[in-house]
Every structure is written in C-alpha cells, then in structure tokens.
Amino acid sequence: MEIFHISAECYPVAKVGGLADVVGALPKYQNNAGNAVRVVMPCYDTKFKIENHFECVHWGHVKLGSFNFPFNILKEKTNALGFELYLVEIPELFNRKEVYGYQDDIERFLSFQIATLDWIIGREDVPDVINCHDHHTGLIPFMMLYCNKYEKLRNIPSMITIHNGLYQGQFGFDKLYYLPEFDLAHVNVLEWDNCINSLAVAIKCAWAVTTVSPSYLNEINYSANGLESLLNLVRYKSKGILNGIDIEVWDPDTDRMLEKNYSIKNFEKGKQENKEKLCSLFNLDPTKPLFSFIGRLLEEKGGDLLPHAAALALSENFQQINILILGSGNTTIEKQLNSLLQDYKGNYNTFIGYNEELAHLIYAGSDFLLMPSRVEPCGLNQMYSLRYGTIPIVRRTGGLKDTVVDFGDNGIGICHDQASVGDVCYSIQRAILLYEDKQHLNKIRKIGMNTDHSWERVCQEYIEMYKLIINKK
Ligand code: GLC
Fold it and tell me: Ligand 1: which atom is nearest the Cα of residue 376?
C-alpha cells in the first residue's frame, strides 16, 4: 500500500510536541510492514535540514490569492528515517527557526498544503491513502474532494488523525480566495462557527477520523472546544487508536543519551547511576525520591498546578523529595516555577526550555513522572517513563486513562481524578510511601518495563482503517 503522511512536525526533523514523535515513528513501522510510506512536511530552517542531503524532485509556484510563492519538493536521499521523507521548501514562508507562532501561519500552512497537492497530482502514481495530521493539514481532504485542479485525487481516501482537538486553525472568510478554485455550492463545507475551521473541515471531508486514544474519542464528544456536535455526527467513521512509541529510540539498554544503559535485569543499579548524574547536574539529593515533569507548561497539561503543588509537596515533606521540571510555555507558569528555586535549593530545580537529551536522562534517572493533564489526547511521556522504569503519576484522562492503571488496582502507576493541587499532592504522598517499600516498587517498575507499547503492534490498526476506507471507494 502506498501511504502519504502529511504533517507539520516529524521527529527528528522538527519537533514541538508528541505529534513529531508519532509522525517520526509510525511511518517507519508501516514501512517495515511492507508498505511504501512517504512523509511530507514543510522545510524549516532546522539542524536536520543542514546536516542531511536532499535532491529536488519537483518545483513549482503556489498561488495563494494574489500571492505567488516558488516552492521545491526536496527528497532526503538516504531514507535515513526508515521511510521516504519529502520537505516542501517555500523559502519565503518557512525558512525560519520555529515551526509555529508566526502572524502568517494561515498563509504558511495553506501554501504548504497546496504545494503538496500540486506535487502529488503531477506524480505518475497517486497514493492509495493520504493520512493528514492535525489542523495544519486539515484543508487537504476538502481540496481533494472539491477543488477543480485536484480532480484526479477525488477518489483517493483521506484520513485525519486528531492529535489535539483544542487547536483548530480557524480563519475568516476574507481569506477564502486563497483556496484553489472550487464550485461555490460547497462553500458551506468550510464553515464552522462563522469562520473557516481547518480541523472541522477535515472532520467533515476525510473518509475516516482517528484520535490518538480510544478514551479521547469518547471525551471529545462532550468536550472539544466547540466541535462536539460535529464529532458526534461523524462517530460512524471515527476510531480511537492508541499511539505507540518507537522502542528503538526509547530503549534504556541502548539509549546513547543516558549516563548508564540498563535493562530489566539491572535496572535498579542503572537507574541509580542516571539519577546520580541528574542530581549532580541539578543540585538535587540522590538519596531521596525524584519526581519530574517533562512537557509544555500549559494549563492543558496541568502546568499551572505545578508551582503550587511543588511548593506544597516540598514544604510538607521538605527534605523528603526532589522535584525537577523540564519544559517551557506559559511565561507566568515559568516565572512561578523559577520563583521557588531559592526556597527549595537542593531539592528542587527547573530547566526552562526543551532539550531532547536531557529528557532521556530524566526518564531514566527519575523515580516518578508527573502528568496532571487536564486534556491528554494520548500522551507519550507516560509510555516512555514506563519503559525506563519510572512510575507515572497521571490524571485519569484521555490516553493516560488508557495506558496507566493505579497500582492499588494491580496497575503500574499512580492515578488521580481531578486536575487539582490537592490530588497531585495526595498522589505524591502515596508515591513516597511506595518508594519506601522497595520490593513493591521494583515489582511495579518491572511490570511497567515489560509492557508492550510498541508501534509494531499498533501500526496494524492504522492499516486496517486504511483498508476499510479504500474498500469504500
Ligand atoms: C499531542 C497531544 C498528546 C499526544 C501527541 C501525539 O501532542 O497533546 O497527548 O500524545 O499529540 O499524538
């Protein structure tokens, strides 16, 4: 089967969040399973672009209303990532350091989508299926169905995978003229809540809709930032498929970013050495349990609970625990977290920013990983932490609910129901007690390390979904 994944992010080319990890791994496993898989993404000014070799396989001009942007399609020459990678180079719009956050993001991602389809229609073979990811690629299913110049793609099934329904790529009808020509009888398909809503358009037009966990699919039927009724309507073509993780990249036995490699046979010693390294880097106490947080400091991730919860946990249990935070996002949260540094020196530290290497060391060297998310479509960090023998402390929501069962119910983690400071602190107290019972702690760690969350198992579910829509042709 020839599969195209179209996405704004792909690890290690460009990463902001979990979307990149999924698009960097799922295609590799699909390719290994005998499919011809291509990933198409914008060409940002990143380290990967500079360090790898590309050939130009196509060029043209994207017409966006009265604008005209030259573009090139660059193919990575060696298939270094385990699949064919294509970068859509539109220098004027994407030759920048960041993936998102510019005033012209609508123009950027719309041009990317148009250039991608312009290239695909010119190819000899059209793909069997096009898998779009999140709202940045949400207009593709519409353009394939309705834009005159893409008529050739009308019968190609498209699927939208929702990694995060909070972000929807809305813009006003004043930009309608950016879209390639289509029969205006279909203009209402673009509309949701008086604007063009890229994610809503994809949900309406794609042949199938998937979310990145089954529980998230249920949750967005009553909480999806305004898209609830639409998502209810399309339940018949929707499925929640739990994400996997790349067990080659995330393997404590071979991970080059660790201080000491370890496996299930020697994890106690291995984790301790990584913990010591981490504690020496961040001035923490390696004899105490280490609680970490890795991720974006946003309300959605419960980031706003961290300053308060950390202060409370550290003062109540002062000198009993360490807390380490790695992440960036909301500047108020960042400031609040940094304001605790002085008071809890020796037991608390932060790294405001993102650092992939440090993240690996934290998974290996921590005892517990905090994930108090209000919304978590899947969450990958809990799966990484399990694989590294670190016990996740999660709020029961979305993918966290699907992957972590409380140890009180014979599970592998610690769970709470509310995204509240009280619930987080109560879980920390339970964790401290568990930490003191080494036999029990290690038993749970081992079960967690043995849990199979690999894409190898999961990627077949995507293939089944593609087959289903291909058969509908
Ligand atoms: C988004 C979601 C996260 C999910 C990831 C990959 O970042 O917030 O929950 O794991 O996408 O699908």
Answer: 9
